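Consortium newsletter contribution from the modelling node. Members have asked for a concrete example of what our holo predictions look like. Here is one, prepared for the D-xylitol-5-phosphate complex that several groups have been discussing at recent meetings.
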Amino acid sequence: MIKVAPSILAADMLCMERDIARAEANGCDWLHFDVMDGHFVPNLSFGPALCGAIRKRFPEVPLDVHLMLDNPEKYLETFARAGAARITIHVEIPGDVRAALRRIRALGCKSGLSLKPGTPVEALKPYLEDSDLVLVMTVEPGFGGQSFMADQMAKLDALRGMGYRGLLEVDGGVNAGNLPLLAQHGVDVAVMGTAFFHAEDQAALVREAHGL
Ligand code: DX5
Ligand code: ZN
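And here is the predicted structure:
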């Protein structure tokens, strides 16, 4: 079974409540909330105010917060208070990765660690015991609607080979066509932005992922 985490970066910005309500009604498991600072990635997205508003309106849907920030440690408490269930940071940040992961857990959230396509999976090794989840990027982070990078699947196998037993999540260019490949590599959670919010039948897409 692969859980589905729609990325609201691909939702209709002026009808966010309608799109999230529809996603929830169609059975999504989590909501993926992409936070971008214009430095770590060349784009800006949402902040804690929207995160808190979504949490208040949709308390049943766990918020899977993906921090694409140079200094995520400055915002961990803010997003924890805004209602994040999970907070994922990137291994490429200049700061102390281990301290940030431990702080996320101390705040009562599940910790997550992500890596860009160009970062070797070995870079995660020192932090796996502090990571409840690893988020493997299958696009260069910063924008939705990009093409899936299948060569990143090797990182999933390598993580299991390192003895990692936490959740494996994949993010970027995921769609109905490549979901079976994710299942072959033992993915637990699929982030889907464009493929989900442009789907003819969201419920069918969720059922397909759940059936793998
Ligand atoms: C990209 C984000 C992804 C993106 C996924 O930086 O981290 O979550 O929104 O969108 P799609 O599924 O359209 O690639
Ligand atoms: Zn993301």
